[in-house]
Specification:
Elements (H helix, E strand, L loop, with lengths): L1 E5 L2 E6 L2 E8 L2 E6 L2 E8 L2 E6 L2 E8 L2 E6 L2 E6 L7
Antiparallel strand pairs: 1-2, 2-3, 3-4, 4-5, 5-6, 6-7, 7-8, 8-9
Length: 83
């Protein structure tokens, strides 16, 4: 197993498949065999990504937003709402 560290990103190689772990600038990133799981909690946003299908959850400035595969669904918590 090879371990490398570059600017807050730690990379492991495991049986010719990459396992990537990074914690940098508020982002926590995992990658395994070209399937990425991205978790970020920064500036009020909580973001998950899995195999290029993104699920985005944001709670900031009164907005609650969900996005799935580039189709956005949004709700405003402080009065009204939109879809």
């Amino acid at each position: 197993m090879l371990r490398q560290s570059l600017e807050g990103i730690v990379v492991f190689t495991l049986n010719e498949g990459w396992l990537v772990f990074g914690l940098n600038e508020g982002w926590l990133v995992f990658g395994l065999n070209e399937g990425w799981l991205v978790f970020g909690l920064n500036e009020g946003w909580l973001v998950f990504g899995l195999n290029e299908g993104w699920l985005v959850f944001g709670l900031n400035e009164g907005w609650l937003v969900f996005g799935l595969n580039e189709g956005w669904l949004g709700f405003e918590l402080n009065g009204g709402g939109w879809v």
